[in-house]
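Deliverable D5.2: sample structural annotation.
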Amino acid sequence: MIFLEKPAIAGGKPTRPKEQYLVFGQPDIQQPEIDEVVSTLKSLWIGTGPKVSKFEEDFRNYIGAKNAVAVNSCTAAMHLSMIVAGIRQGDEVITTPMTFAATANCIIHCNARPVFADIEKESMNINPREIEKKITKKTKAIIPVHFAGRPCNMDEISAIAQEHNLIVVEDCAHAIESVYKGRKIGTISDFSCFSFYVTKNLTTAEGGMVTTGNEGFASEIKVNALHGLSKDAWKRYSDEGFKHYQVMHPGFKYNMTDIQAALGIHQLARVSENLKKREAVCKKYDRAFKDLPLILPARPEANTVHARHLYTPLLKLEEVKCSRDDVMAALHAEGIGTGIHFLSLHEHHYYRETFGFKPSDFPNAKFVSDRTFSLPLSPKLSEKDTDDVISAVSRILEHYKK
């Protein structure tokens, strides 16, 4: 590995010139997807149609789920799951503060209240023992989030849910490839919600999927995802011809298009191959960063598969003379894009002001929130890309070390 004599942090030449900036979360789009999208455009069937049906079937088979319904985002998937689960005004739903806003917002959109339970500092996943502390007579559901692709402790969470008669809606936005004790994530709980956003391990640019073992739930989700029109309405968007429909509920415009599904079909075909590539990048980062002032991501738990969606080291603040944001700004100057996963939700303005959360309420989430940053992790990364990330991180942390 070659280190430049004058890195950008010292006022010299950056690791990567502006025109070669390494974008965080860049997708790996290959020719089969491009050809499938072009074919879809030429067919003139670009709305919800046969490609969506094929993608649903392929995804259902990959996960091993009984039912899979494609929608236009993971947010839509979670919102529809909450509705079908019967979450209503006055209900409480327990989730983690270490997640994206959508997880809590889908609860709020059902006029229910999000209740946060602190995380395990090492796994960064919701702590089942903290869930138990938050259960009240108003609690109706739990939303565990498989952070960065690491499966939550679903045995304990499922046992808690069963004991208290609670619905479980898994936020699987990071967890397409994840496996927990021999069971594929997406086959364990009442609902499992996946994301195909542009940065995800499988992308359709925007998109999502709900898997469930309950055929009635799947049917309700499909109806609610298309304006609340009767089940036959989906058939009028297929090659079976026009079908009359009835409005059954005041539903939503949450359906996926064939253009999106055309991407997903081929992305899904490479998902296992791409996981191996990301695992190799994670191991390379682990070796390179082991002596730096960082807490590296914990190893995957026994008998699980980590989906490796994010690589999230924590800055050892006591060993450096800078903040996490300083490191990210320095990496940006070096031509390396980064992300934050996440600024804990209880620290955001809306949730503080609406629900009265204080920074000290969830100390483990606060600890991670202050120190975490995400480095590029994509099957599209070249050896030079990862070498540049390692070079820039190493020089910056050496510069800031106390």
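Annotation notes: Confidence is low (pLDDT under 50) at residues 1-5. The chain is about 35% helix and 10% strand.
The annotation will be released with the project's public dataset once the embargo ends.
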